[in-house]
Amino acid sequence: MIKNRFQTPPSLKDKVAIVTGAGKGVGRAMSLYLASCGVKVLVNNRRHPSETDAQSSAGGVVQEILAQGGQAQANYDDALDPDSGRRMVDQAMNTWGSLDMVYANAAISQHASFHSLSVSQLMQIIETGVVSTLSLFHAAWPIFKEQRFGRALASTSSAGRFGNHGLSAYAASKGAIESLVRSLAHEGEKHNIYCNAISPYAYSQMTASHLPSHWINKLQPEALAPAVAWLLSKECTLNGEVLVAGGGRYARAWPVETDPLEGEDLPAIWQKLLKMDGRKHKDSVSAFESFMVERNGSVGNRQ
Fold first, then answer.
1. What's the pLDDT band for 4 if we cut at 50, 70, 90?
2. Longest dimension (CA), the chain
3. Residue 81 in 3-state DSSP?
4. From the candidates 103, 170, 201, 203, which is the catalytic residue?
5. Nearest Cα to 100, choosing from 14, 9, 189, 6?
């Protein structure tokens, strides 16, 4: 288990969490750290057909937690199954009688150009990320609403904001997750449900092939643990935010739009837009209204 060298949010002790994609890499490190903080963890990772419980990655993480005196159970549901979230929530509730936080981390990588993959292959990448997150959040939401508390966290990626060659479907899934998080933040706020995303830079099975060797030691998954623990805690009041984290460094990521310009010469307008700063908006309505505001402060063509 990860040695808890950071200040632990006191509210985490005896809370219950579900972590998906938790058999290896970031999910494993987060499960171990949360358990070291006193959290009861349902560790989810798909079991391969030839594996026994003891041989599975989720089972291995649970054994590590139990050996250190923590509380955990394994869950082997496939993230592609839309009912997986409901079964995970049911298992946590039946085992511990409560649920306080969920961390949707399941994903599969892509290192192939768009045209080289079939539509089915592209959809599998998208659905593994998006469907698994939707399923888990949707199953936990009624419990969070009833108890007027919940923390929902999802893993995203810089690919979802900036794109990259060979990451078309993966980027699409992460972009969708960031939009989901921002929308759910609005719905959950009045119920004390806060929903955020973490965009991790970490060495893992998914990143090993393209992470420069001199950054491997710096970007160990364990370095993300304090950020994840904080985002899932009662002490954290962020909502609808994306925290970029890796190697003990942090950044904030958010969507922006420039103020609008009018005219008919689009190439010239575009060059001016490139030099303008972006503005953040609290929601899509405020973005639209800002776009329609004339320079004199009135709203154009409002009836």
1. very low
2. 69
3. coil
4. 170
5. 14
- Of 13, 77, 17, 64, the closest CA to residue 42 belongs to 17
Alpha carbon 119 to its chain's center = 24
- Catalytic residue flag (residue 170): yes
122: phi then psi, degrees, rounded to nearest 5 = -65, -45
Q: Do 193 and 150 contact (CB within 8 A), yes or no? A: yes
> What are the start-end ranges of the H helices in 148-222?
158-162, 168-188
Query: CA–CA separation, 210 vs 205, rounded Å?
Result: 10
Tokens representing 279 are: 């503005």
pLDDT tens per residue across span 260-284: 999 999 999 999 999 999 989 888 8
8 Å CB contact between 25 and 46: no
Cβ-contact 59, 27 below 8 angstroms: no
Q: How confident is the model at residue 48 (pLDDT cuts 50, 70, 90)?
A: confident
Mark 37-69 as b/e (b = at least 16 C-beta within 10 Å).
bebbbbbbbbbeeeeeeeebbbbbbbebbeeee
